[in-house]
């Protein structure tokens, strides 16, 4: 993974700490080899190559991520859609390359999560159409953070902070005090827009500053793509989601980014135990009901 992974935890000895953190790093590596669309030899790439011909049996982990992606797609009315990759793969943020309007039009019909058929009994994935390409970039890191936390827990760790890029999970508190988590200012890498005291929570941020370039028209071409028009989504600069697990918060942060302030908050306010902080294009901050009034509003605790 190109994303930096950081963790902080307390253990009995230095040797233990080294061994445990290595286990977590190895798990991230394994998941990257499984779910990266940038690796030809990943399980996901094999699915992308063959699932339009026949149902492909996949591993437990990948199937779980496919199922969660489908749930977030349903919940967000298709704002979150892993088949965005059918167009998304044509963007190259390092090379500052974006597809032409014709290329987008040609591939847009391939974005349709309804054409991804998951068979729970057989644990298979089938694509109803050729040309459909899936990309787990909006959800796989959250899955990996959850698996990392599982490892730490199984090792007896009770206080930990584990993050990979925009996804973080806190296990317990910071030994008697809350962890202090900053939500960064989308236009200033070294400043926080807000700082939160937190414990035992997953927190994911999707931002238009993670992977982007400015094109010849001065437009910010970033990595969160509208399934409707195949273009980077406008309207917000960042979305932060708080919840119980990072698989959910990771998927929802991308979904809310695509939905925008109004629809995004409406969706979040209907979910128990989930909250959102949105920073819009005018740099205004918007909070879900549970953060404005923790006792009322959403049922988050
Ligand atoms: P990161 O943690 O890398 O910042 P995010 O959680 O913010 O990632 O999600 C952004 C990623 O989601 C993009 O890099 C891309 O891989 C994927 N993505 C972009 N648009 C969509 C979409 N409409 N639905 C699902 N995934 C998307």
Features:
9 helices; binds adenosine-5'-diphosphate; 301 residues; single chain; 3-stranded antiparallel sheet; alpha+beta
CATH topology of the domain at 166-292: T-fold
Number of alpha- plus pi-helical segments: 9
CATH architecture of the domain at 166-292: Roll
The ordered H/E elements are EHHEHHHEEHEEEEEEEEHHEEH
What about the largest sheet? Answer: 7 strands, antiparallel
* Ligands: adenosine-5'-diphosphate
Topology summary:
Layout: E1 5-9, H1 14-35, H2 43-50, E2 56-57, H3 60-75, H4 85-88, H5 101-107, E3 116-119, E4 124-127, H6 140-154, E5 160-164, E6 167-171, E7 179-185, E8 188-198, E9 202-207, E10 212-214, E11 220-222, E12 236-243, H7 246-259, H8 261-269, E13 275-280, E14 285-287, H9 289-292
Antiparallel strand pairs: 1-5, 2-4, 3-4, 5-6, 6-9, 7-8, 9-12, 10-11, 12-13, 13-14
Helix pairs in contact: 1-6, 3-7, 6-7, 7-8
Bound molecules: adenosine-5'-diphosphate (ADP).
Keywords: FAD, Flavoprotein, Magnesium, Metal-binding, Transferase
InterPro entries: ApbE, ApbE-like_sf
Catalytic activity: L-threonyl-[protein] + FAD = FMN-L-threonyl-[protein] + AMP + H(+)
């Amino acid at each position: 993974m190109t994303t930096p992974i950081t963790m902080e935890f307390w253990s009995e000895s230095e040797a233990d700490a080294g061994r445990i953190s290595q286990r977590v790093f190895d798990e991230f590596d394994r998941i990257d080899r499984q779910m990266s669309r940038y690796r030809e030899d990943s399980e996901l790439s094999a699915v992308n190559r063959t699932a339009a011909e026949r149902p492909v049996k996949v591993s437990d982990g990948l199937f779980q991520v496919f199922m969660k992606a489908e749930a977030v797609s349903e919940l967000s009315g298709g704002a979150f859609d892993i088949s965005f990759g059918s167009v998304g793969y044509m963007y190259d943020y390092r090379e500052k390359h974006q597809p032409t309007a014709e290329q987008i039009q040609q591939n847009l019909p391939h974005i349709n999560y309804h054409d991804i058929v998951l068979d729970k009994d057989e644990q298979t994935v089938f694509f109803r159409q050729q040309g459909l390409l899936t990309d787990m970039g909006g959800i796989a890191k959250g899955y990996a953070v959850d698996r990392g936390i599982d490892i730490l827990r199984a090792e007896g760790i009770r206080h930990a902070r584990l993050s990979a890029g925009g996804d973080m999970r806190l296990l317990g508190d910071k030994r008697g005090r809350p962890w202090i988590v900053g939500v960064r200012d989308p236009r200033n890498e070294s400043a926080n827009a807000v700082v939160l005291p937190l414990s035992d929570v997953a927190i994911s941020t999707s931002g238009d500053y993670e992977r982007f370039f400015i094109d010849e028209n001065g437009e910010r071409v970033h990595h969160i793509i509208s399934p409707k028009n195949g273009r980077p989504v406008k309207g917000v600069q960042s979305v932060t989601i708080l919840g119980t697990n990072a698989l959910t918060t990771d998927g929802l942060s991308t979904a809310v980014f695509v939905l925008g302030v109004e629809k995004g908050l409406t969706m979040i306010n209907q979910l128990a135990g989930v909250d959102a902080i949105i920073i819009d294009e005018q740099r205004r901050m918007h909070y879900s009901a549970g953060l404005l009034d923790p006792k009322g509003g959403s049922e988050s605790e």
